[in-house]
Amino acid sequence: MKQEICIVTDRQEYGSGLFALTFHAPQIAAEAKCGQFVHITCGEGNLLRRPISICDVEGEMLKIVFQVKGEGTEWLSKRSPKHKLDVLGSLGHGFNTDALGERPVMIGGGIGVPPMLYTMKNAKANGATPSAILGFRNKDAVILTEDFEKVGTTHICTDDGSFGTHGFVTAELEKHISEYTGVCACGPKPMLKAIAQIAEKAGIPCQVSMEERMGCGIGACLVCACELKLRDGEQGVRYGHVCKDGPVFDAKEVVW
Ligand SMILES: Cc1cc2nc3c(=O)[nH]c(=O)nc-3n(C[C@H](O)[C@H](O)[C@H](O)COP(=O)(O)OP(=O)(O)OC[C@H]3O[C@@H](n4cnc5c(N)ncnc54)[C@H](O)[C@@H]3O)c2cc1C
């Protein structure tokens, strides 16, 4: 884990309150793994950093994509080239694409789409033939599809049918499930739960990136607890911390 003061080199506004920032983070980029996140100080008065997933890494550059939610992400959306960012990373346990076989599928829902790009690139770099299924509310919320299409077959769904296939990513997954050897996913919890059930029924491995509100980001404050199934011989309740043990968990471990 490194802390770097990073210079922003590019800013894009996608619309619908969605932004992308690229910044120079040589030390963090050197060790970043797919599915990990960075923790960014968002403004002078904001003591708690904000966790944002790594969307892409190219050389010494790191790209993040985020939705404006409150004060922190609002501040972040106003950064432009030459501004500095105080970034801690890379944090957490990411996806293990080696465990997903030769034909893994990367599934992203809404703001869960960005981390699946670097994950898909990673699977391809490791010799797999990855596909993607990406779900968005409507055509205004559609992002990054051209980047995914450069890496592999990409199915796009929208809730209202205004772009791509009309419907949820889960329907698309069920349609193509026999083509895949493993699944990894990031998005809203009900979507992850449904994906985990489909993968289990098909008998293929599934990894999910869980999102919880976070404090310190390094396992010290215990804010981001997520209940996990007990292991053999264990009693009581078992919690994992999204920041340290996750954000990626084996779907079979999670108490849905
Ligand atoms: C591991 C991880 C990776 C993430 N990656 C991304 C990403 O790539 N892009 C992105 O846009 N966002 C991502 N998030 C969510 C992002 O961290 C929050 O949206 C951000 O912290 C909100 O900060 P804020 O100061 O703008 O808003 P706040 O004022 O802190 O909150 C505004 C609203 O957002 C809600 N909110 C805050 N944090 C979360 C959260 N973790 N999950 C759900 N709702 C939340 C609050 O309940 C509140 O309603 C990630 C979160 C985690 C835990």
Tell me briefly what this model is:
With 256 residues, the protein is α/β, with parallel strands linked by helices.
User: How many domains, as an integer?
Assistant: 3
Helix/strand/pairing class, anyone? alpha/beta
For this entry, what is the oligomeric state of its chains?
single chain
Report the portion of residues in β strands.
25-35%
Helix content: 10-25%
Number of strands: 16
Distance between the termini: 30 Å
CATH superfamily of the largest domain: Nucleotide-binding domain of ferredoxin-NADP reductase (FNR) module
Average predicted confidence as pLDDT: 94
SS field, number of helical segments: 6
- Unreliable stretches (pLDDT < 50, length at least 5) are none
Give the CATH topology of the largest domain: Rossmann fold
Name the helix and strand elements from N-terminus to C-terminus, one letter apiece. Answer: EEHEEEEHEEHEHEEHEHEEEE
Radius of gyration: 18 Å
* CATH architectural arrangement of the largest domain: 3-Layer(aba) Sandwich
What hetero molecules are bound to the protein chains?
Answer: flavin-adenine dinucleotide
Structure description:
The mean pLDDT is 94. Helix 5 (169-176) runs parallel beside helix 6 (189-202). Strand 12, helix 6 (189-202) and strand 13 (206-209) form a beta-alpha-beta unit. This protein has 256 residues and is of the alpha/beta class. It has helices at residues 26-31, 71-77, 114-125, 145-151, 169-176, 189-202, and strands spanning 2-15, 18-24, 37-40, 50-53, 56-58, 61-67, 84-91, 104-109, 131-136, 154-158, 165-166, 182-186, 206-209, 225-228, 238-241, 248-250. It contains 6 helices and 16 strands. The protein folds into 3 domains: 2-91, Elongation Factor Tu (Ef-tu), domain 3; 97-208, Nucleotide-binding domain of ferredoxin-NADP reductase (FNR) module (Rossmann fold), CATH 3.40.50; 210-256, Dihydroorotate dehydrogenase B (pyrk subunit), domain 3 (Ribbon).
